[in-house]
Amino acid sequence: MSDVILQTRDLSKQFGALAAVDSVTIDFLKGQVHAIIGPNGAGKTTLINLLSGDLPPTLGAIKYKDRDITALGPDEVSMLGIGRSYQKTNIFPEFSCLENCWLGAQSRQGSSMRFIKPAASVKAVRERAEHALELARLTNRIDTPANMMSYGEQRQLEIAMMLATEPDLLLLDEPLAGMGTEEAGKVIELIKDLAKNHTVILIEHDMDAVFAVAEALTVMVNGRRLQTGTPEEIRASKEVQEAYLGDEEGEA
């Protein structure tokens, strides 16, 4: 069995009297695609926001590669090797694909205030950006402005920007949202390819896509973890059927 790369222990996030995430304990294994599913208001996106450092937890702990990252902000979490995509496309529409990825690659060069840099440094940033575009299957779009691409390609570009930071673990928040069947199929195949060399934590409402790519699933209901298991175990669970799989409408 693979080693644990990320773990939560009794992780909680309260907004006033609402427990959006309530004492959640999960082990995420290195090299796996682990999907988090659940009905509307289950706390899935809040959990991802805690893992990425976008929200501080109220209680509990998060460890990444045996390091406590509970109190770290999103920039620090990113620097450790955790990449994040969001439900809404987060790109620079006037920039080309290369320029968008350049920003992600540049973040790994240290201070952006060093205006005089050796040529080797600039070359390394470009190579990292180009490699990210290759991984995201956008090599043929390298000089295309982001606002000239289809919605599906823009979602691929956001993944490429994340890959330019060279993460080990990818947090993907509804990467198929708003896509047609053809575009969704391309992104599903992309996720499968990325999973060969990355750990992936995935939130997605398309159950066909989830069961096509995930090796482990966690079901959340009302902020709590209902069950974690293999796709087969989750499909067979009566509790999960009652809580979620019989009603696939709504968002986190």
General description of the model:
Residues 248-252 have low confidence and may be disordered. 36% of the residues lie in helices and 25% in strands. The strands form two sheets. A six-stranded mixed β-sheet has the order 6-7-8-3-9-10, with helices on both faces. It has a four-stranded antiparallel β-sheet with strand order 2-1-4-5, with helices on one face. By secondary structure, it is α/β, with parallel strands linked by helices. It has nine helices and ten strands. It is globular. It starts with a strand and ends in a 7-residue tail after the last helix. Helix 4 crosses helix 5. It has two domains: 1-81 and 168-252, P-loop containing nucleotide triphosphate hydrolases (Rossmann fold, 3-Layer(aba) Sandwich); 90-166, no CATH class. It has helices at 44-52, 74-79, 97-106, 119-135, 151-163, 181-194, 207-213, 231-236, 238-245, and strands spanning 4-15, 18-29, 33-37, 59-64, 67-68, 82-84, 169-173, 199-203, 216-221, 224-229. A hairpin with a 2-residue loop joins strand 9 and strand 10.
Between the first and last Cα atoms, what is the distance in angstroms?
A: 30 Å
Major sheet description: 6 strands, mixed
> Total number of β-strand segments?
10
- Which consecutive residue ranges, at least 5 long each, have pLDDT under 50? 248-252
Instruction: Specify the number of helices.
Output: 9
Percent range for β-strand residues = 15-25%
Q: What overall geometry do the principal axes of the alpha carbons give?
A: globular
In N-to-C order, the SSE pattern is EEEHEEHEHHHEHEHEEHH
Rg, nearest Å:
18 Å
